C-alpha cells in the first residue's frame, strides 16, 4: 500500500513537472499595432491627421498593450489552476481584445477620396443594400440615426447574418465586437462613435462626424468582405 502511494505521488509529481515544462515551452501569442494603409492626413478634411494619429498610436495601442497583459495574466492563472483569476480577467480581455478587433476593422473601412473613399458599393453588396434597406441613402440614414442615438461610447455596424444571408444594422456598447450580438454576425463595416474618434475636430456634435465619415468610406473593402462571407449572392 505504501509502495503504491509512493508511486502515485511520483507519477503525479512527474505529470505536474511535465505540465510545467509544456507551459514554459509554449509561446504566448502577442498582438501588435497594425500599420494604417494610408497616411494620418490622408482622410482630411473628413477626419484630421491629429485625430488619426492619436486614435491609432495612443488609443489602439493602449488596447493592444492591455490585451497582451491580460492574456499573459490569463496564461499564468490557467497554469496555476487559479479559476478565480481566470474569471476575473474575462472583462479586461473582452474590452481590450474587442478594442483591438474593432479598430483593426475600422482602419480598413476607411480610404482616402483619391483611392476610392466614398465611392458607393457596386455589384452584390450594392444589390444587397438595396434589397435590405431600399437604398444606400436609406442605410446611411439608419446608421447615422442609430450611431447618434447610442448613449455613451460604442460602435454602429453594418453586419451580415451568415445564417439568414441578410444585412442588418446593429450597435454595440463600449468595445464589444459585433459577434457579441450573435455568433452568426459578421461585420461588413463599423463606425467608431467613441468621443476619441471625433471630439478634437467635431467637439460634441457626433451627427456631423457621422455625416462626413461616409465621404471616406471604403466600400471596395466592404464589398470584398461581403463577397467572401456571402459568395452565392
Give the secondary structure arrangement, pairings included.
Elements (H helix, E strand, L loop, with lengths): L1 H24 L23 H32 L2 H6 L1 H19 L14 H11 L2 H14 L4 E8 L4 E8 L11 E8 L6 H4 L3 H8 L5 H11 L4
Describe the 3D structure.
A hairpin with a 4-residue loop joins β1 (154-161) and β2. With 233 residues, this protein is mainly α. The model is unreliable at 1-25 (pLDDT under 50). The chain has a domain at 113-229: minor pseudopilin epsh fold, CATH 3.55.40.20. The chain has a three-stranded antiparallel β-sheet. Helix content is 55%, strand content 10%. Residues 30-111 form the Manganese/iron superoxide dismutase N-terminal domain. Its main location: mitochondrion. It catalyses: 2 superoxide + 2 H(+) = H2O2 + O2. This is Superoxide dismutase.
Which short descriptors sum up this protein?
233 residues; three-stranded antiparallel β-sheet; 55% helix; globular; disordered N terminus
Please outline what is shown here:
The protein has 233 residues and is mostly helical.
Q: How can the largest sheet be summarized?
A: 3 strands, antiparallel
Query: For this structure, what is the CATH homologous superfamily of the domain at 113-229?
Result: Iron/manganese superoxide dismutase, C-terminal domain
Radius of gyration, in Å, reads 23 Å
What is the architecture of the domain at 113-229 at the second tier of CATH?
3-Layer(bab) Sandwich
Termini gap: 70 Å
CATH topology of the domain at 113-229: minor pseudopilin epsh fold
Q: Helix and strand string, N-terminal first?
A: HHHHHHEEEHHH
- Biggest sheet, spatial arrangement of strands: 2-1-3
Oligomer: single chain
Question: What is the structural class?
Answer: mainly alpha
Number of helical segments with 4 or more residues: 9
Determine the fraction of residues in helical runs and give it as a percent range: 55-70%
Number of strands: 3
Give the mean pLDDT: 90
CATH class of the domain at 113-229: Alpha Beta
What are the segments in which pLDDT stays under 50 over at least 5 consecutive residues? 1-25
